[in-house]
Specification:
This protein has helices at residues 8-13, 20-53, 59-77, 88-119, 125-145, 148-162, 170-173, 187-195, 204-225, 228-240, 246-262, 265-283, 287-301, 311-319, 323-351, 365-372, 376-387, 392-421, 428-473, 475-487, 491-506, 511-529, 534-544, 556-565, 569-579, 582-592, 595-598, 602-624, 633-646, 651-674, 682-685. By secondary structure, the protein is an all-alpha fold. The radius of gyration is 26 Å and the shape is globular.
C-alpha cells in the first residue's frame, strides 16, 4: 500500500516536546484504533469465509456488505490528517462522519434491498441521498488509500455524465469536443446508475474483489504468517544460488512465486527484494541493476498463474471463459516473460564475470523441503480443485482450510513426537501455549487479509464508477472510434496507442483499475474492429496495464526497488524497463500469432512457440551485446529486423526472420567455441 496503515506511526513521529499527558492520550487512542481495526478486519474475513464456503449470499448482499466493511476499514486505517499527524478533535469529527457514511453506504442496500428492488427505478429521496453519500465515501476512501489521481478521474467521470443539454451541468457540455458530447444525465439518473444498479459501484469489478480476489488475498495472508514466503525464497536460492548471478535468478523465481499469490508487484518488491537486492549488490550487480531486476521480476508475478493479481478472475468474468482456461493459456506467456528476465540477468552476470554464491551460504533443498513441505500441500489442493472446475471462491476457501490443517498437523507432530525426543516433554502448559499461538496466527492472518484487500477493493469500487459512466454515456464506443480514426486502421499503431493509454492511466490508477477502465474503452475496438479474439484483447490490455510498474516516469515497482537498493529512482526504473521488455513484445506476439493462446494444429503451435523463444533470446542478446560471447555491432543490428519479421503475421516472413536470428545466434556460439569460451554457454551455466 502507498500509505501508512495505523496511527502508531503518527504517534511515533510526533515531536517529543508535546506534553506527556497529550502523548499518553494519543497513545491510548492509537491502541484503541488498532484494536478496533483488528476486530473489524477479523469480522470481515470471517464473514467472507462464511459466505465463500458455508452459506453463499446473493450478489447485492455480498457486494454491499463487502463495501461497508472495506470503507469502514479504510477510514480507520487512513485518518483524514494523514500518517504523520494525530487526528485531533476536528479530525475525529470528520472521520466519525465518514465512518458513519461507510456503514450506511454498504449496509443500507444490505438491509433494504427488497424495498429498493420493489421500487424498480422509482427511487425515493432516501435512495438518492444514500447514493450521494456512498459515492462521496468511495471517492474519499480512494483519495486516502489509492491516491488523489484516481479520485480526480472518478470525479471527472461523474462530471462528464452530468454534462450536456439534458444533464445537471448543461454549461459543462458546451466545453466538450463534438465527438465526446452527449445529452447528459440528471443527478437522480447518475446516482441510480452508480449506486442502485449493477453497472456502477456494485458492478463487476467490486463483485470480483468481494469474492474471488478477497479469498485469494486471504489465502496469501495465511501463507505469509505461517512462513511460506521464507520457504519459497529459500527454495529459489537453493535451486539457483550457485549459478552466475544466483541471487538475481533467485529473485526472478521467488518473485514469480510470491507475486502470483500476493497480487501486488510493489509488495512483492518490498518482501522478496529485502533479501535478494542486498545479495545481488554483494555479488557485483550495480544498485540500479539490482533494484531494476527485482522490479521486473515482481511485475512478472502479476501475470503468472494462478492469481495474476486480480486479472485472471476479471478476465474470466468479462469474457465468460472459465477461470481454469485463463490460467492454462497464461502459463506459457508467463514462462516467456520470466525466462526473458532470467536471460537478461544471466547475460549481465556473464558479461561481468560474476560467479555464484558459495554452497556454505545457501540452503540445501532437502533441508528446505523438510522444514516447509506443508506449504506445498495447499498449492496442490488449489490446483486440484481448479482443474476440477470448482468455483474459484470455493477453491480459495478450501485452500485456506488446507493451510490451517497442515500447519496445525505440523505443529502437533513437532509438539507430540519430535520435541519429546529432544528432551522437551509434552505438558498441559506447552499444549495451551501452542493452541494460543495457533489462534494468534489465525487472527493475524485474518486481519492481514482484510487489510491487504482494502486497496484493491477501493480501487475496484472507483473503477465501477468509471465503468458505470462509460455505460451511461456511450463513451466506450466514442473512445473506440477515436482510436480507429487515429490509427488509420493499422493494428500496430492501435497497440501503441493502447500501450500509451495504459501508461497514462497507470499514473493515477492501480494496475487492476487501469485494466478495467482500459478494456471498457478500447476492448470493443480491438475485438470488433481489428478482429483480435476477445480473450487475447483482454490479455493484451491486462499485460500492458502492468507497465506503470516498470516504465518511467511512473514506475512504482522500480521506485520501491530503488528505495531498497539505495539507487536513484529514475536510473533504477530505466533498468526495470529494460529487463521487462517481454511485457511489450509478448502481447504483440499474441495478437499476430493467436494460435499461441487460442490453440490450433499441434505442429503449428509448437512452431510458433519456438519462433517466439528465438525472437526473445535474440532481442535480449542484441540489447546486452552478449550471448555465448560478445556480439559484434553488425550481428546486433541484423537481429532487429529479424525479430520484427518474427512478429509478422505472414508465415514466410516469420520463418525468414526466425532463420536470420537463429543463424546469428549459432554464429555467436561458434565464435565462443573458437575462442575457447564454451563455458559461457547460458544453457550450461544458467
Amino acid at each position: 500500500m502507498s500509505k501508512q496503515t495505523s496511527d502508531v506511526t503518527a504517534t511515533a513521529a510526533r515531536s517529543p516536546d508535546l506534553p506527556v499527558n497529550l502523548q499518553s492520550a494519543d497513545a491510548v487512542q492509537s491502541r484503541l484504533i488498532l484494536w478496533l481495526i483488528t476486530v473489524v478486519a477479523i469480522l470481515m474475513s470471517l464473514f467472507q469465509l462464511y459466505t465463500a464456503g458455508i452459506k453463499p449470499m446473493g450478489l447485492f448482499y455480498q457486494r454491499s456488505a463487502h463495501l461497508g466493511f472495506i470503507l469502514f476499514l479504510a477510514f480507520l486505517i487512513f485518518p483524514i490528517t494523514g500518517a504523520t499527524r494525530p487526528r485531533g478533535i476536528i479530525g475525529w469529527i470528520v472521520d466519525a462522519v465518514f465512518l458513519t457514511a461507510a456503514f450506511l453506504s454498504g449496509f443500507y442496500i444490505f438491509f433494504f434491498l427488497d424495498d429498493i428492488i420493489s421500487r424498480a427505478g422509482w427511487w425515493s429521496q432516501t435512495d438518492i441521498a444514500m447514493g450521494i453519500i456512498a459515492t462521496i465515501a468511495v471517492l474519499e476512501a480512494s483519495r486516502r488509500v489509492v491516491g488523489l489521481g484516481m479520485t480526480i478521474i472518478g470525479l471527472t467521470a461523474i462530471s462528464y455524465a452530468l454534462a450536456g443539454p439534458r444533464g445537471a451541468l448543461p454549461w459543462l457540455g458546451e466545453w466538450m469536443p463534438g465527438i465526446l458530447s452527449h445529452r447528459g444525465a440528471s443527478l437522480e439518473r447518475v446516482v441510480g446508475q452508480l449506486y442502485l444498479g449493477q453497472e456502477g459501484i456494485f458492478g463487476l469489478p467490486l463483485g470480483v474483489a468481494a469474492t474471488y480476489v478477497f479469498m485469494f488475498v486471504l489465502f496469501g495472508a495465511f501463507l505469509e504468517v505461517t512462513g511460506a514466503g521464507k520457504f519459497f525464497i529459500d527454495m529459489a536460492f537453493a535451486a539457483t544460488g550457485r549459478k552466475p548471478g544466483g541471487p538475481a535468478k533467485a529473485a526472478v523465481i521467488a518473485s514469480a512465486g510470491m507475486g502470483s499469490i500476493s497480487g501486488s508487484a510493489i509488495a512483492n518488491v518490498v518482501t522478496t527484494g529485502a533479501f535478494t537486492i542486498p545479495l545481488m549488490k554483494k555479488l557485483g550487480y550495480k544498485p540500479k541493476e539490482a533494484g531494476g531486476i527485482e522490479a521486473a521480476a515482481s511485475t512478472g508475478g502479476q501475470i503468472t498463474p494462478p492469481l495474476m493479481g486480480a486479472g485472471a478472475f476479471l478476465i474470466s468474468e468479462y469474457t465468460n471463459v472459465p477461470y481454469i482456461d485463463i490460467v492454462m493459456v497464461s502459463i506459457f506467456p508467463a514462462i516467456l516473460y520470466l525466462g526473458t528476465v532470467y536471460l537478461f540477468v544471466h547475460l549481465v552476470a556473464m558479461k561481468a564475470g560474476m560467479t555464484g554464491m558459495a554452497a556454505s551460504e545457501l540452503p540445501v533443498v532437502r533441508d528446505v523441503l523438510a522444514a516447509g513441505w506443508q506449504f506445498i500441500v495447499p498449492l496442490v489442493v488449489l490446483v486440484y480443485l481448479l482443474v476440477n472446475n470448482i468455483s474459484p471462491t470455493r477453491v480459495g476457501f478450501w485452500a485456506i482450510v488446507s493451510v490451517i490443517v497442515v500447519t496445525a498437523l505440523r505443529a502437533g507432530f513437532t509438539l507430540i513426537v519430535m520435541d519429546p525426543k529432544s528432551g522437551k516433554p509434552l505438558t498441559i502448559d506447552r499444549l495451551q501455549a501452542a493452541i494460543l499461538n495457533g489462534l494468534r496466527l489465525m487472527a493475524r492472518a485474518l486481519e492481514l487479509g482484510a487489510r491487504n484487500a482494502v486497496a484493491v477493493s477501493v480501487a475496484c469500487a472507483v473503477a465501477g464508477i468509471i465503468v458505470g459512466v462509460v455505460g451511461l454515456t456511450g463513451l466506450g464506443l466514442k473512445f473506440s472510434s477515436m482510436m480507429i480514426s487515429l490509427s488509420g486502421g493499422n493494428m500496430a499503431l492501435a497497440l501503441i496507442f493502447v500501450l500509451l493509454a495504459s501508461l497514462i492511466l497507470g499514473m493515477g490508477l492501480p494496475v487492476t483499475a487501469a485494466y478495467i477502465v482500459l478494456i471498457v474503452l478500447v476492448g470493443p475496438a480491438l475485438n470488433q474492429e481489428f478482429g483480435i479474439p476477445l480473450l487475447i484483447a483482454h490479455l493484451v490490455v491486462f499485460w500492458y496495464s502492468q507497465d506503470s510498474n516498470v516504465t518511467p516516469p511512473i514506475a512504482l515497482a522500480g521506485f520501491a526497488g530503488a528505495a531498497i537498493a539505495g539507487s536513484k529512482p529514475m536510473e533504477t526504473s530505466m533498468q526495470a524497463w529494460k529487463y521487462a521488455k517481454g511485457l511489450y513484445l509478448i502481447p504483440a506476439f499474441m495478437v499476430y500469432n493467436p494460435e499461441i493462446i487460442m490453440g490450433g494444429e499441434t505442429w503449428y503451435v509448437i512452431w510458433t512457440g519456438i519462433l517466439v523463444v528465438i525472437g526473445l533470446v535474440g532481442f535480449a542478446s542484441a540489447i546486452e551485446g552478449y550471448l555465448f560471447t560478445w556480439m559484434d555491432k553488425l550481428s546486433r543490428l541484423l537481429i532487429v529486423p529479424g525479430v520484427i519479421a518474427i512478429f509478422n503475421p505472414d508465415e514466410w516472413i516469420e520463418a525468414a526472420g526466425g532463420m536470420l536470428v537463429l543463424g546469428i545466434l549459432i554464429w555467436n556460439w561458434l565464435k565462443s567455441r573458437r575462442a575457447g569460451r564454451g563455458a559461457a554457454n547460458p544453457v550450461a551455466s544458467g
